[in-house]
């Protein structure tokens, strides 16, 4: 099986036109006509990730965050992105990224977060889009089977996503049934979450000023960008294993989160 077949399978699941205008999802580095020897699945691509792929005998890396996001003006060792690109080329490793297209697609990142939390009946909120018959939306609203208290939601988030702290506004003094979700940076969807009737809004990061003015209106729960998207590689794995049986898939063991809590 060729790398191209794996790339095509991923893009059928989450077509590239679903991505935001600012994004750069898709093939980042390498050629796709080579026979695939294995795929390493990760959130970010760094030199250590390329080393891990080489050690595992993988010639494809599938990441969530694009390695090449801003224009490459040269290819030296000036920064980590350039170093990573060079190392991938030297080792004949192809790199592709599935970013806001896998965020927004049905069964994508936001659906995965809902699944991990045990939420039911996920539906899109915010702006929606249909590409080649595939539905996408900016966020997902889903429900607990039985409403939970705000402090229990915080504990569930900490346990499920291995979060050292959850940044919240004032704890809600009513049961939480409906939860709005946006993996990564979700400040832009807070008003839409309120309009959707959500009791809580779970996201990866938010701006400081967006916490103001919502006490007892909605429970804001911010768990960290990396933490909110850490299970994205499980989505990649299930897509590849179903569409391309026999391709060896590995979930990275390298934690690329640049933020530490002291």
Secondary-structure blueprint:
Blueprint: H1 3-13, E1 26-29, E2 39-42, H2 47-56, E3 60-63, H3 80-90, E4 94-97, H4 100-104, H5 109-116, E5 120-131, E6 134-148, H6 150-161, E7 167-168, E8 176-185, H7 190-195, E9 200-205, E10 219-222, H8 225-229, H9 232-243, E11 249-251
Parallel strand pairs: 2-3, 2-11, 3-4, 8-9, 9-10
Antiparallel strand pairs: 1-4, 5-6, 6-8, 7-10
Helix pairs in contact: 1-9
Share in helix: 25-40%
Query: How many alpha or pi helices?
Result: 9
Low-pLDDT segments: none
Identify the strand order in the major beta sheet. Answer: 5-6-8-9-10-7
- Oligomeric state of the chains in view: single chain
Order of helices and strands: HEEHEHEHHEEHEEHEEHHE
What Rg, in angstroms, do the CA atoms define?
19 Å
* Helix/sheet category: alpha/beta
Please tally the β strands and state the result. 11
Mean pLDDT equals 97
Largest sheet: 6 strands, mixed
Distance between the termini: 46 Å
- The backbone outline, from C-alpha atoms, is globular
Please report which band the strand proportion falls in: under 5%, 5-15%, 15-25%, 25-35%, 35-45% or over 45%: 25-35%
Describe this structure in words.
With 262 residues, the chain is an alpha/beta fold. Helices cover 31% and strands 26% of the residues. The protein has helices at 3-13, 47-56, 80-90, 100-104, 109-116, 150-161, 190-195, 225-229, 232-243, and strands spanning 26-29, 39-42, 60-63, 94-97, 120-131, 134-148, 167-168, 176-185, 200-205, 219-222, 249-251. Strands 5-6-8-9-10-7 form a six-stranded mixed beta sheet. A five-stranded mixed beta sheet has the order 1-4-3-2-11, with helices on both faces. Helix 1 crosses helix 9. A divalent metal cation 1 binds at residues 65, 103, 225, 229. A divalent metal cation 2 binds at residue 64. Keywords: Metal-binding. InterPro entries: DUF34/NIF3 (IPR002678), DUF34/NIF3_sf (IPR036069). GO terms for molecular function: metal ion binding.
């Amino acid at each position: 099986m060729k790398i191209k077949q794996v790339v095509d399978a991923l893009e059928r699941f989450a077509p590239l036109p679903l991505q935001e205008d600012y994004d750069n999802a898709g093939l980042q580095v390498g050629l796709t006509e080579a026979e695939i020897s294995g795929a390493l699945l990760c959130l970010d691509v760094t030199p250590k990730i390329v080393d891990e792929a080489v050690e595992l005998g993988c010639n494809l890396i599938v990441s969530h965050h694009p390695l090449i996001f801003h224009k490459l003006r040269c290819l030296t060792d000036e920064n980590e992105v350039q170093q990573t690109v060079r190392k991938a080329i030297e080792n004949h490793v192809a790199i592709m990224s599935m970013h806001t297209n896998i965020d927004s697609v049905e069964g994508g990142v936001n659906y995965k977060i809902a699944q991990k939390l045990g939420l039911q009946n996920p539906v899109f909120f915010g702006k929606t889009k249909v590409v080649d018959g595939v539905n996408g939306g900016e966020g997902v609203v889903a429900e607990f089977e039985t409403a939970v208290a705000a402090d229990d939601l915080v504990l569930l988030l900490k346990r499920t996503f291995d979060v050292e702290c959850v940044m919240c506004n004032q704890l809600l003094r009513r049961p939480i049934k409906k939860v709005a979700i946006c993996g990564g940076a979700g400040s832009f969807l807070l008003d839409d979450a309120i309009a959707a009737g959500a009791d809580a809004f779970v996201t990866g990061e938010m701006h400081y000023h967006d916490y103001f003015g919502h006490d007892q209106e909605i429970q804001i729960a911010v768990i960290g960008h990396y933490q909110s998207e850490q299970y994205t590689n499980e989505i990649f794995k299930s897509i590849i294993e179903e569409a391309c049986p026999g391709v060896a898939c590995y979930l990275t063991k390298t934690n690329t989160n640049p933020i530490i809590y002291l």
